[in-house]
Predict the structure.
Amino acid sequence: MTENCPQSEPVEGGRPLRRDAALNRERILHAAREIFGQRGLGVTLDGVARHAGVGVGTVYRRFPTKEVLIQALFEQDLRMRQEAAEKALAHPDPWQGLVDFLVETSADLAENRGLYEVLMLGAHTSGPIETARGGMLPFLEALIRRAQESGDLRPEVTPSDIPVIQHMLYGAAQFTQGRQPDIWRRYLEILLNGLRQRPDSPPLATPSLSNEMVEQAMGIVGPE
């Protein structure tokens, strides 16, 4: 989903990079997206350099620390999630808008282990990433409120349910160990059937987690 995203024009020190330096930067970012997506954020900059086919010094000149590289990669991914939420809010059918958002964002997570670790586990966080992640809550609240007001979504569903659901779907995608990586789609269908309001739907007996509890579980904030 996110691997083909166009990068903004590369700059360094406020000035555009030379063509060869810009090409190396894009090669490093592309390789990092692939290897972080496959193996997670435990990969070192040396590993990124090998995957990119460039010297280690080249990577360190463009990205002096792994945190800088991760921030360059995943700030854009998080912005894209906000764009997906805005698109879902503009959908004329509130329920279908919510479904489209869940499908798109769940696919991103299932296919990109690095994004999952940044977004859902609070790994390698930074100020801009924190801001982008925190900016999702108003969108989730609006998506859920809109679908509930249309009578399509169960009234008990809360914004904090969404990251828990996405954890579940990521776990389903990993369960088959690559043999059927899109199996999460089946379980999203099952979950959507449970999320949809029907006249004979019994109320949910167990309350949802608070937003604070979800953030603590994700490692975004520490326990009080």
Q: What stands out?
A: Residues 1-9 have pLDDT under 50 and may be disordered. Residues 66-89 form the longest helix (24 residues).
